[in-house]
Amino acid sequence: MQIRPNRIKHKLAEGGTAYVASGFTHSDDIDAFGPAGFDGVWLEGEHGPVNAAELGNLTRACDIWGMTSVVRINRNDQALIYRTLDRGAQGIVVPHVNTKAEAQNVVDGGKFAPIGYRGMFTSRQGYAVPDYFDVANDETLLIVLIEDIVAVRNLDEILTVDHIDVFFVAPSDLATSMGHIGNIQLPEVQDTIDDALARIQAAGRTAGTLASNDTAAKYAAAGGRFLLTGVGGWIAAGAAKFMSHAGGAT
Description:
- The protein is α/β, with parallel strands linked by helices.
- The protein has a single domain, classed as Alpha-Beta Barrel (TIM Barrel), CATH 3.20.20.60.
- It is built from twelve helices and eight strands.
- Helix 4 (78-86) links the parallel strand 3 (68-72) and strand 4 (91-94).
- Helix 2 (27-33) runs parallel beside helix 3 (52-64).
- The model has no long low-confidence stretch (mean pLDDT 96).
């Protein structure tokens, strides 16, 4: 038995763009979404209901379709990071990473020795994989959220931390930290997002951000290679379109 490949990590390493969807809370929904061809599923453990007990089934559903299971946790805690990986996640998203030291803490919790200090447990992804501890680091995706203006100010130092796969610029929290809650379209906020994405790329690192159908082309052109979208917007738009068409026929 070989370790499951991390689809997002490999795609990014090959210079491609990874497409990731969020909004799923049940394994059956992930299973139904599998044929869509996305690279990964973002499981929400900071603002959403996902917890350790559910991760086995959720990540197994991702495994069935070869999609990377990416879990956002709610704090930058090494034990929480590696417990989430132990439960089967192939990727970790850590919020509010504002300094180089905080970024390094993500690596320390997310990688086995000699890179980090992840606790020595086989994990779901390691069952029957004889060389798991030798290869797990290569298949573990680490993402840090750049979502505070202080992180943007410290970005050059944060970008020097090795073994982080994606530096994800989070628009809503960034706008709030700039004093513009709910106003991510303000030129000042958009300029800050664009500047952060450009600096990440200039440092030779991978940038990511949140996108919609309307903004995906813009952020892809800006160099974002980890593009996250929420399925809620698709559902709302599809429902509105359906009712509009039905209403127009009566």
